[in-house]
Design brief:
The protein is 30% helix and 36% strand. It is an alpha+beta fold and 160 residues long. The chain has one domain: Aminopeptidase. The protein is globular. The N and C termini lie far apart (40 Å).
């Protein structure tokens, strides 16, 4: 198998454990202006109401990306999806989102919510492909790296 074929091999999707907190923090820092630290990930990953998925390289088991959601009653909210910069636009986010929809449905959620920066066209397109619709917006919800505020779109997908 050549290097290129291994590099493009589909991710293995597995439950994300707290021992990957440092890796999560590094990937999150590459994706967001105000990232969470490893301690925050460790806390989330040990929470009983957290759904967490890891996309792993099939050969090296290196973390390619991850998704975290929180369950509350019959709803779930995607807290974050982050993909390593070298793995973007290769289906990692798509695979993580598909698994999260499956997990939330199995856990009894009837709806899945998320917030996404209004200017994040790639993420919004992905969410639309999976049937999410905009149900609101939050002005100045995010803060960009330059300190300026950014609007979040609130999106929802019904499950079941």
């Amino acid at each position: 198998m050549s290097f290129l074929s291994r590099r493009h091999a589909p991710s293995i999707i597995r439950p994300l454990r707290a021992d990957r907190s440092e890796d999560c923090a590094a990937i999150h820092a590459s994706a967001f202006a105000h990232p969470w630290d490893a301690g925050e990930f460790a806390t989330l990953l040990t929470g009983a109401s957290t759904l967490a998925s890891a996309a792993l390289d099939p050969a090296s088991h290196r973390l390619r990306g991850f998704a975290l959601s929180r369950l509350a009653a019959d709803e779930a909210e995607i807290l974050t999806i982050a993909v390593d910069p070298g793995e973007r636009r290769r289906g990692v986010g798509r695979d993580l989102l598909a698994e999260h929809l499956r997990q939330a449905t199995l856990a009894g959620a009837r709806a899945l919510f998320l917030e996404v920066e209004a200017e994040n066209a790639a993420a919004i397109a992905l969410y639309h492909r999976f049937g999410f619709v905009q149900v609101g917006s939050r002005a100045a919800y995010y803060r960009r790296a330059d300190g300026k505020p950014a609007t979040a779109l609130v999106m929802r997908r019904d499950l079941k």
